Amino acid sequence: MKKFLGILALGLLFSNLAQGESLLPKCEGNDEKITSFSVKHFRMVRKWTNCHGTTISPKGAKYVGEFYKGKFNGQGTFTGIDGRKYVGQYKNHKKHGKGTYTYANEDKYIGKWKKAKYDGHGTYTYSNGDRYIGEWKNGLRHGQGTFTYASGRVEDGIWKRNKLLKPKQ
């Protein structure tokens, strides 16, 4: 019976994580229905730590997610006023870890981030149908990767700073 309860508890825990829900408590003074920027709210956000909340920038961008010492930290969703959107992990207010970024022009990157730059394995799909799947470093195609053009042409091999160095034979 204890084993069953343990498995049930783990299942509930991971089902919440899979749905994107935070296990952190709600931030003190958080108003999930906030629709515009306020200085009072901003001052409160700067104090939020180890909690989950919602904030809006002076220009109208919205962040819903986890905070640590007043910064985006952990899982979160950022939505810009121009239509861009990032859903993923943050560290010290920067995209860091796994995440999906959709640009206003419908380009999309799904993969790993390091200090707000593509870094590690990821897929960038361009709005024109081109696609790169492979390794990134410092925001550039770098390492093993495949660039497939919408026309069907393929460039596969080793990349360095966005240039194909060694095409695969």
Automatic annotation (TrEMBL):
Stored Pfam families: MORN
Keyword Protein transport: no
Key words, A-Z: Repeat
Organism: uncultured microorganism
Annotated InterPro entries: MORN (IPR003409)
Protein name (database record): MORN repeat protein
